[in-house]
Design goal:
The protein is an alpha/beta fold. It has a domain of 62 residues. The protein has 5 helices and 8 strands, in the order αβββααβαβαβββ. The strands form 2 sheets. A 6-stranded mixed sheet has the order 1-2-3-4-5-6. Strands 7-8 form a two-stranded antiparallel ribbon. Strand 5, helix 5 and strand 6 form a beta-alpha-beta unit. The radius of gyration is 15 Å and the shape is globular. The chain starts with 10 loop residues before the first helix and ends in a 6-residue tail after the last strand.
Length: 142
């Protein structure tokens, strides 16, 4: 059970590694840009999509990550361009579950839902993204 004031990681989460795919600062040979995206490879979860798809794809290629076989779930934290600008990555994915806060604009949610490979989930408060991973939407605007 979740408590407001504390949290703990499950044994599953303790064994996972994040690959930062998009950030202001980049390793030598990678592209840096304003925004954020990371991949939890073991679960196929892309968390946020950075500011543009070209930089995201470039950095994925440098890591030898194929979106078609590597991304099964996309979680978008909020509707700012530096976290959603690379969402066109869905065009390079197979079937993908996309989780967004319900507060996202109808236009953005409609655009996502118009893609035949996307199954869209609007998160109201708490949603299980996959085994061992819960997404909690904070109160307030996206």
């Amino acid at each position: 059970m979740l408590e407001d004031e504390s949290f703990s990681f499950s044994p599953i989460a303790n064994s996972l590694k994040l690959k930062i795919l998009y950030d202001d600062e980049a390793l030598n040979g990678f592209r840096g840009a304003f925004g954020f995206s990371c991949l939890i490879e073991e679960k196929g979860i892309l968390f946020d999509a950075g500011g543009d798809v070209d930089t995201l794809l470039f950095n994925m290629q440098k890591f030898r990550i194929d979106p078609l076989s590597s991304i099964r779930i996309i979680v978008l934290s909020h509707e700012h361009i530096d976290h959603t600008g690379g969402i066109q990555i869905i065009n390079y994915c197979g079937k993908v579950d996309v989780f967004v806060p319900a507060s996202f604009s109808d236009r953005f949610k409609g655009w996502l839902a118009s893609h035949p490979n996307v199954r869209l989930y609007e998160v109201q408060e708490l949603e299980e993204v996959c085994e061992g991973f819960l997404l909690r939407v904070s109160l307030g605007n996206s």
